[in-house]
């Protein structure tokens, strides 16, 4: 009788545990196949059919380091890498169960090449060392948002979405393609998702769209303007904003105008040149006109209410692209060259 009671108790406990586990899997199943909240495909590259997006990051401006060759140095680190600044998008997908990494990889490769991808390198065999070095260099899963639930297997094992990328049957491709005249960098990696028992393939995509950081987000205060004018006789002010190709000063220039006016109201006898500068995009005559019009717009803003600075104390000049402070060969340099300066007369 005692033995029978123990057997019944054990059976009951087993059933309770099994029931709890099945309820857990049922809850997991509700999340299965659902994209991460607010995640979306990049406009340039659509997902493999039937896949769902489980990891997502989109930064309007940040820096990212990526390998540009499959070679490793003697310390088994990435030999050739590139650090880029701009819009960074990272995506991790799970393909439908039964789709192997090579099939998924080939489909992405074909789509990218059809879009004009210029291949930098590819690794299709024995890529585990490259995967390890890349993971340490680029930390591809850092900062991603993740889908709810887990990766689970037919036998009930579960793995976090964070662990989806693996070295198992990994394949990697890097290249660049043109989009609206801009060079976009693309890194593709596919592998078994977590472990073979999942029967799933994970895909990582990173798209980097280089662009200059928005400048002028911090205005220069009156004391800093005064100090620069005393030591250098001039100062470039990047807190004055205009739409591309236009001379109408924008409302978000107010903070910088406030500080310019504060200085001029404290030094009532000093006169200034207000000098507009452009980058070298477009023809010189148009840039000369635009740079003068922008300088005149600043003078007009400071002369009007609420500042009411005597307009005779300011002389507007346009310098087009005659005095660059950086190279015009990239957007970062061109952004620095587009400026308005105060110069002591």
Architecture overview:
The protein has 345 residues and is α+β, with helices and mostly antiparallel strands. The protein folds into 2 domains: 179 residues, no CATH class; 123 residues, 60s Ribosomal Protein L30, Chain: A, CATH 3.30.1330. The chain contains 7 helices and 13 strands. The strands form 3 sheets. The protein has a 7-stranded antiparallel sheet with strand order 3-7-8-9-2-1-4. Strands 10-13-11-12 form a 4-stranded mixed sheet. The protein has a two-stranded antiparallel sheet with strand order 5-6. A hairpin with an 8-residue loop joins strand 8 and strand 9. Helix 4 packs across helix 5. The chain is elongated and about 85 Å long. The termini are far apart. The N terminus is likely disordered.
In brief, what are we looking at here?
With 345 residues, the protein is of the alpha+beta class. Helix content is 30%, strand content 27%.
List descriptors.
7-stranded antiparallel β-sheet; 60s Ribosomal Protein L30, Chain: A; elongated; 345 residues; 4-stranded mixed β-sheet; 2 domains; 7 helices; alpha+beta
The percent range for helix content is 25-40%
Write out the strand line-up for the largest beta sheet, numbering strands in chain order: 3-7-8-9-2-1-4
Largest sheet: 7 strands, antiparallel
Radius of gyration: 30 Å
Instruction: Give the N-terminus to C-terminus distance in angstroms.
Output: 109 Å
Q: What is the number of helices? A: 7
Number of DSSP-assigned strands: 13
Strand content: 25-35%
Structural class, judged by helices and strands? Answer: alpha+beta
Indicate the mean pLDDT: 88
| Molecular shape | elongated
Q: Unreliable segments (pLDDT under 50, ≥5 consecutive)?
A: 1-24
Number of structural domains: 2
Note the run of SSEs as H and E: HEEHEHEEEEEEHEHEHEHE
């Amino acid at each position: 009788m005692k033995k029978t009671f123990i057997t019944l108790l054990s059976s009951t406990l087993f059933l309770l545990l099994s029931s709890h586990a099945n309820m857990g899997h049922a809850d997991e199943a509700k999340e299965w196949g659902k994209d991460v909240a607010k995640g979306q495909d990049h406009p340039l590259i659509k997902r493999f059919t039937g896949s769902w997006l489980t990891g997502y990051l989109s930064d309007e401006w940040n820096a990212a380091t990526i390998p540009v060759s499959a070679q490793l140095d003697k310390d088994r680190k990435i030999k050739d890498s590139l650090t880029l600044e701009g819009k960074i998008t990272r995506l991790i997908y799970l393909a439908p169960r039964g789709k192997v990494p090579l099939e998924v990889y080939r489909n992405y490769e074909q789509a990218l090449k059809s879009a004009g991808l210029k291949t930098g390198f590819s690794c299709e065999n024995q890529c585990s060392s490259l995967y390890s070095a890349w993971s340490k260099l680029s930390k591809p899963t850092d900062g991603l948002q993740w889908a709810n639930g887990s990766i689970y297997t037919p036998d009930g094992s579960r793995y976090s979405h964070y662990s989806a990328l693996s070295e198992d049957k990994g394949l990697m491709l890097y290249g660049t393609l043109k989009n609206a005249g801009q060079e976009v960098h693309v890194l593709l990696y596919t592998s078994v998702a977590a472990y073979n028992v999942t029967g799933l393939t994970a895909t990582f995509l990173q798209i980097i769209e280089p662009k200059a950081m928005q400048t002028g987000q911090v205005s220069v205060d009156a004391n800093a303007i005064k100090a620069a004018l005393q030591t250098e006789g001039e100062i470039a002010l990047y807190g004055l904003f205009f739409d591309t190709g236009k001379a109408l000063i924008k409302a978000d220039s107010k903070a910088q105008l406030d500080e310019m006016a504060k200085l001029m109201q404290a030094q009532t006898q000093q006169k200034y040149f207000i000098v507009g500068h452009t980058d070298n995009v477009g023809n010189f005559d148009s840039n000369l006109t635009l740079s003068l019009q922008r300088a005149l717009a600043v003078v007009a803003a400071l002369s009007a209410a609420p500042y009411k600075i005597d307009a005779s104390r300011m002389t507007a000049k346009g310098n087009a692209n005659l005095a660059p402070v950086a190279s015009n060969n990239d957007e970062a340099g061109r952004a620095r060259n587009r400026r308005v300066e105060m110069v002591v007369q």
